[in-house]
Each structure stands twice: as C-alpha cells, then as structure tokens.
Amino acid sequence: MPWRGVLDELENKIIDQLTEAEEHATYNGKWHGFLTIGYKNKRATVINFSYLCLANLINEMKKSALKNQTEEAISFKMDIAVNYQLENLGEWNRKALKTKKNYYRRGIALNENFKIALMEQEINANAILLPGDEGLAINVENMNRYLIQANKNQAQLNLTIDSSVVTFETVGWFFDGKNIHELETASLDHGRRKVERLTPEITATLVENAGEYLAHQVNATGEFNYGWFACFDKKIKHYNSLRHASTTYSMLEAYELTGNKAILEAATKALTYLEKHFIYEKDDRAFLIEPELREVKLGGSAATLLALTKYMHITGTKTYLPLCRKIANAILSLQDEDGKFTHVLEYPSLEVKDIFRIIYYDGEAVFGLLRLYEIDRDSKWLDAATKSFNHFIKDKYWQNHDHWLSYCANEITKYIKDEAYYEFGLQNAFDNLPFIYERETTFPTFLELTVATKEMTLRMEAEGHQALLTSYSLENLEKTITKRALYQLNGYFYPELAMYYKNPARIEGSFFIRHQSFRVRIDDVEHNISGYVRYYQLLKQGKLSTEAESVR
After folding, report:
1. What sign does the dihedral 353-358-359-365 (CA atoms) show?
2. Could you give the 3-state DSSP secondary structure of residue 293?
3. Helix axis angle, 474-487 relative to 419-430, nearest 10°?
4. Do residues 128 and 118 touch, judged by C-beta distance below 8 A?
5. How far is Cα 195 from Cα 202, in angstroms, rounded to an integer?
C-alpha cells in the first residue's frame, strides 16, 4: 500500500492528539520526533527530527518516510517525544543501575539538541544499559556501535559524570503495511499497540501466531531451533529434551484451538524426533533422557506423557498408548510408598542422581498420569496420582504456588471429589494472588496457574461445593486473570517491537523474557500458549470478562 495517504491520515491523528499538550511535548522550544523504517530481516532504521513547529516536524517526517518507501521497507513508525526531564548523568546513572535489566522505559538524549537521542526501544534492543551495583549503567561499546551504525554519531562518544542527559517518553503510531496502530504510552506497556480488551478472536490469533512461530522452529529432522537472544540474533546452543517434549505439547494445544494443520504437522515431526532420539526403554519402562547431561528427569518423562496423550486425544488414535504405559511405569518406579518422587537418575545406569531438583516435576508427573488415565482407564495410574497428591497435601506443597500443582489439582478433582483436594488447589493460587497481580515481569506460568484454578472453581460451583469458596474472593481471581492475560502482551513480539532487533523475521509472533536479554526460548513461547489456550476457553464460555485496565 502506498504510504502517502496513510501519512496524511496519520498527520491528522498526531496534530489532534498533541496540539493541546505542547508544554509536555516541546523541549527548549522545539518538537522532537523519530521516524522508524521497518524491514523484514534487518534492524530498523531510526531517523531523528527536531523542529520549532509541530506541523513542520510532521511534514519533514512524512517527506523522509516517502523517500524511504522502497521494496525492502515493509512498515514505518512515527514517535513524538514528550514529558522531558533534564538530569545530571551521575544522578541518572544511580537510578539506571538499580532498574531491572531491560526495564528502563524512557528515551535518552545525550545532548540537549537531540542529535544524539535514542528511544527506549533502541536502547533495549541494542543492550545499551547494564544494571549493576556500581560503575556506568551504559554499555559504552554497544552504544557507540549502534550510534555509528544508525548514523547518529560517527565518533566515539565521551561522557563524564558532570554531563547532562535529557530523558523522555514518546507517543507513537505504527503502520504495518495495512493498518495504523496507536501505541501504548504507559511505562510498562510502552511501545506496543493498544489493546483495550482481549477478545476470544484476539486471543486465538495470539495462540495461532505463537504456534506457527514454534512450527517454523521445527527443522526437517524434527528438532527445534531451541532459542535466540533477540538483540543480536544470537542462537542458544544447548538443548533440553524436557522442553522439547513440553513445547510439543503446547503446539498440540494450539492446533486443538486453531485447527492450523501446519502446527500439527510440525508437532508430529517433533514427536517422531523425540521418540527416536530421546526415549530409553528398559523392560516395561521408558524414560526421556537428557543426552547432554546424561540423565533422566522425572519432569521429562511427565512432559512426554502429556505430549503423547494430547496427540492421541486430538487425533483419536491410540498410536502411542503402549509407549505411554511404559513411561507411566517409569514414573511409578520413581515413586515411594508415601507418594514422594525421586527426581533425577543417571543415564544409562539409572542410579539415583538427585532425590530432589525442582518442585515443578512433582505436579507435572501427577498431571501426566491423570492425562493417561483419561485415555487408559487403568486404576493404577489414578491410584499413583492419588498417593502423590495426598503427599502434596500432607507436606503443604501448596506453599510453592506452582502452576503444575494447579493443573493437577484441577485434573484430579474431576475424578476424586475430596474437599481437601479442592482446598489444596485453592490455597495454591489464592495465597499468592496479590504477588501475581502486581508482578512486573511477564511470567507466563502465572496465567496458567490462575486459569487452571478458575476452571476448578467453576466445577466446584456446578457440583455444589460453594461453601468451600466462601473464604476466597473469586472476584480477585478473575481480576488477576484478566490483568495478567492483558499484561503478558508486553512479552509478545509485535512487529512494532520486533523491528528494532537484529532479525525481526526471526522473532515476530513469539514471546520473550525481557530481563533475560529478550530471550525467545521454545518454552517461553510454550507457557504463553498454554495459558492463553485456557484463557480463550474461559472467554468463549462467557466465564470471564474481557474488560480490564492496562497496567499503569
């Protein structure tokens, strides 16, 4: 689509919004703006502008956009700086050092004429800030490299403790080639498109995009590209078979929701690779192995069970049932009489390596056994799950507030209507709701935990267990779910964010962990899919409101 008409429309939007806010949108009598030109496979180009008049600023940005509309350019973004603060570098540096990694959300002008000015997205996408206990919060090497590459400064920049910086926010709009998107301005949401509410349609699109992203990470053999650090398109070199299995499970969930056959085909290929390369069979048991570490993990076998049973559930076949029974036998061989599990064995000796490694494995194992019981009604799977769940209750595992425990509490109470089981599931979630509600990281398992609990409470109401719920605020649970679902969009690579990274096509449509160097690992995407799938189902059933305020 030609950009000229879009730019004219955008000019009116900008003028309407900003002319009444001049006192907040000018610095030293000038308006300052940024034009970003987006490309498919390379980092965006950002051009700085400063003019005395808003109309002149926009006019020059429009001219530049038209000049840069080439076959290679696929999008553009226009930002106007607002809410300036002049700060001494030393004072600013102390604050920046204490800010969580990649959570600094203001732009920085390193000179007052704004010739060397970087938006927040440029700063974070180029790893320019480095929090710590002392020293300079600016990674000078990364900053100088970017300034030179972006033609913002051709010499090495020298800063002293007495230098001044101007920090600012931006108001922005993004054109993706088809539509204009107004962008969020609040600090923690900053720079992504405005989404007032998550509808079932929007949620399904998120799941499908993330599922397709994972499908593209499955190579010809069925192995995943394990992950990337987005800033510099750096591949994560090691591999984890547990996450291979659990990611495949989430892809099958995505297929079940969307019906996208490309996702199913890739997941099937990943399952074949898993069976061929990661399964070790011994007598009537089968284990998932971690070849790099030469060990067997309880959680790995559980994740494999979840993936294989989900495949059989959605395809209506019993293809993997013999293997699932062997994997379940292996899980039972790690369970003692009290229901406690041994977590890690050496491979291939199967000698005990770690009695306990991480709390996730326990709930995951019980959840896997219950999913097998759903397909293969052998009472020993339910009996084993019950034994471990009683151990969870006795040892107050709910204090761990683990999403796998929410999953298995929801699942086991489909078969055993024990009020102690329901109480455990409620405690696992509700005791931690304030923390989940306020958490600034987009930790995806929080949504998984809360939606699984919501499903359980709905069943409790339908089955006449309302008395148990009187001590718990279902309203707070719903508010937390709705807020977390919306807030997790801040960990999604919309194109208006992905464009600032080295290889936008690699990461667009994926989910990332901001404080882990914008890491996009297959399990980061997996957990978001699983949470949003269940969130979608609740929305479709009319069991959740779609109204929520963005985090401010």
Report:
1. negative
2. coil
3. 50
4. yes
5. 9
Q: For the chain, how many residues are written?
A: 552
Return d(Cα 361, Cα 388) in angstroms, integer.
12
8-state DSSP, 2:
-
**pLDDT tens digits for 311-332?**
999 999 999 999 999 999 999 9
DSSP state of 99: S
Q: By C-alpha distance, which of 455, 463, 492, 478 is closest to 546?
A: 478
Q: Give the three-class secondary structure for 289.
A: strand
H-helix or E-strand containing 393? helix 379-394
Q: Which two tokens stand for residue 382?
A: 């339910």
Burial 127-140 (b: 16+ CB within 10 A, else e): bbbbeeeeeebbbe
Residue 454 has a pLDDT of 98
Burial string for 253-282 (b: 16+ CB within 10 Å, else e) reads bbbbbbebeebbebbbbbbebbbeebbeee
For residues 128 and 145, what is the distance between their CA atoms, to the nearest angstrom?
A: 10
Q: How many CA atoms lie within 13 A of 512 on its CB side?
A: 26
Quote the pLDDT of residue 21. Answer: 66
Can you give the pLDDT at residue 23?
A: 67
Low-confidence spans in the chain with pLDDT less than 70: 21-23, 546-552
